[in-house]
């Protein structure tokens, strides 16, 4: 299994590209960005915002072979900088036009279901490059970062935007605590919590 390391400024483009390709067919995010021809470019913009906002927290991780990447938000930190948070609404409108109102409802589902009563690490994004799928690299990266979170004695939280992955997270100790749906009822997103071990 490849080595796991913290991503540096020089890795940002590669991390964004891993996530962009990993999420291409994701049920939730492809619903949000339905134009298959524009989706990669849209993802590069949106994931770029999230990766660059998270990098200063020191919890963006990758495998050294570029196979998988994870964006964690440590306790007390925000997923987006204030500046990027303020940009998000107009950016979504710019990217998806008239579909933006529905996407805003979906994004609000992420926010309103996120637990805030206990400090935790938040897995914002986890993805495996399509060329590396099926080799266990994404789950190995997740397990390696969870081991460090366990050492700190903190719980972890994630949203599963592709329900086919729920069982993988459960194997690593996550339990579903709630779920929400995109407008229209599909797709659904599982909200999952893990106590430290």
Keywords:
197 residues; alpha+beta; Aminopeptidase; 7-stranded mixed β-sheet; 7 helices; globular
Description:
By secondary structure, the chain is α+β, with helices and mostly antiparallel strands. It has a single domain (4-194), classed as 3-Layer(aba) Sandwich (Aminopeptidase). Helix content is 42%, strand content 20%. It contains 7 helices and 7 strands. The chain has a 7-stranded mixed beta sheet with strand order 1-2-3-4-5-7-6, with helices on both faces. The radius of gyration is 16 Å and the shape is globular.
Task: Give me the secondary-structure topology.
Blueprint: E1 4-6, H1 12-22, H2 27-32, H3 39-54, E2 60-63, E3 68-73, H4 82-96, H5 100-113, E4 121-128, H6 137-151, E5 156-160, H7 166-171, E6 175-181, E7 188-194
Helix pairs in contact: 1-3, 3-4, 4-5
How many helices? The count is 7
Strand order of the largest sheet: 1-2-3-4-5-7-6
- Structural category is alpha+beta
Q: Average the pLDDT over all residues and give the rounded result.
A: 96
How would you briefly describe this protein structure?
This protein is α+β, with helices and mostly antiparallel strands.
């Amino acid at each position: 299994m490849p080595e796991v390391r913290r991503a540096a400024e020089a890795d940002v483009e590669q991390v964004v590209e891993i996530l962009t390709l990993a999420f291409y067919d994701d049920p939730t995010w492809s619903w949000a960005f339905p134009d298959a021809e524009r989706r990669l470019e849209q993802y590069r913009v949106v994931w770029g915002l999230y990766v660059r906002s998270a990098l200063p927290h020191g919890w963006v991780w990758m495998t050294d072979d570029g196979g998988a990447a994870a964006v964690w938000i440590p306790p007390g930190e925000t997923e987006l900088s204030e500046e990027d948070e303020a940009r998000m609404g107009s950016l979504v409108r710019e990217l998806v036009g008239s579909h933006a109102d529905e996407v805003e409802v979906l994004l609000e589902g992420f926010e309103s279901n996120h637990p805030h009563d206990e400090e935790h690490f938040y897995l914002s994004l986890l993805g495996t490059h399509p060329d590396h799928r099926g080799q266990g690299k994404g789950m190995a990266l997740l397990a390696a970062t969870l081991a460090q979170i366990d050492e700190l004695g903190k719980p972890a939280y994630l949203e599963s935007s592709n329900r086919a992955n729920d069982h993988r997270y459960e194997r690593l100790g996550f339990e579903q605590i709630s779920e929400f749906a995109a407008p229209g009822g599909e797709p659904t997103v599982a909200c999952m919590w893990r106590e430290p071990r």
